[in-house]
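Section 4.2 – Deliverable D4.2 (structural model, holo form)

The reporting period included a commitment to supply a predicted holo structure for the target in complex with adenosine-5'-diphosphate. Inputs used:
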Amino acid sequence: MKVLVINSGSSSLKYQLIDMETEAVIAKGLCERIGIEGSKLTHKANGKELVKEEAMPTHNEAVSLVLAALTDGEYGVIKSMDEIDAVGHRVVASGEAFKKPALVCEKTMQIMEEIKDLAPLHNPAAIIGVKACLAAMPKKPMGLVFDTSFHFTMPKKAYMYAIDYTHYEKYQIRRYGYHGTSHKFVSEEAAKYLGKKPAELKIVTCHLGNGSSISAVDGGKCVDTSMGFTPLAGVPMGTRSGDIDFAAAEYVAKKEGLSISEANTYLNKKCGMLGVSGVSSDFRDLRAAASEGNERAQLALDMFAYSCKKYVGGYAAAMNGVDCIVFTAGVGENTPSVRAAICENMQYLGLTIDEEKNQEPNTGAIRDISGKDSKVKVLIIPTNEELVIARETVELL
Ligand code: ADP
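Output (structure tokens):
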């Protein structure tokens, strides 16, 4: 069985074709600059790479190009689209309308339209991606897999905001959490690696990338997570502020003459590591600048690690202990100094790391960097959100 996973962005479309028997990636690629001049497809399969610079005014042309690449005589991996058994679509926001993945049909697409304002940058792109795939493969079964689903096990005391309760009822204003496919994947992988059942473990999963979120996973179920109604909440990120006093944001907006919507854009795009450092949102640039003595770059890194540390401690408190901490995503998998800064001074949890192991290069395999006598396992686990989307799609069938 072969599943095509589609991750549509506003001007991009990432894809993977996965063989579900072996869970191997048969082909993958990216369409960039959809709707903008200079659009380009990069397709990788069988160790070869195809780059096609061709106009993609909409996602329809992008999907056509992807299907052409997949069935290409030289770079292709299938003879015809009939070999694709299903398509799994990544969707960012679900609201309370979808508490688990759902099959694409008229009804679910209508609900998708109704909730698209919840993630105005992402959900409309997912709808366009689904429609483009349906246009090319009208009869193909398709799944909608949400970034939020894994977090629906949170207890109400964790997901409610202390606002007028009727606004929760009227508008479903609450914490949803994001990166759910990643938190699910790495928490399950951690249990497998440790030879335990998920039910036996209290895990804190740290998905640290350009966007970052931290989750508390107790007995295989998410019980809290750092992102909120939108991905803006939690630890400071590449360009997002993370948690902030609303009154401080309102004050900046007044002084700078920003509307509420502009203030939201400011908090999402101009703050975080970029805002504090004035250098970059990218952790590689921040580390380079900090090592050259840039104090604001160092401050941004310190603030990030401190915030992550507080979430880890908070979630250990919420779960009455922690057996394992997992680091994943771009920064979590590749930045020893950030892991070290988060894990330092955690003797109160009996947690230490082995600094030599922490410094070893990323091989793409799971790594155990726990100190010799550490009571808490510290693991680095490469995430695989596409595989979760493919698995969930198969489950829907
Ligand atoms: P996104 O949230 O966009 O998926 P990623 O998980 O790719 O982000 O993380 C991007 C961040 O990870 C950047 O700040 C970058 O510096 C860091 N990063 C990614 N890959 C590497 C790498 N190979 N070495 C060092 N840092 C990396």
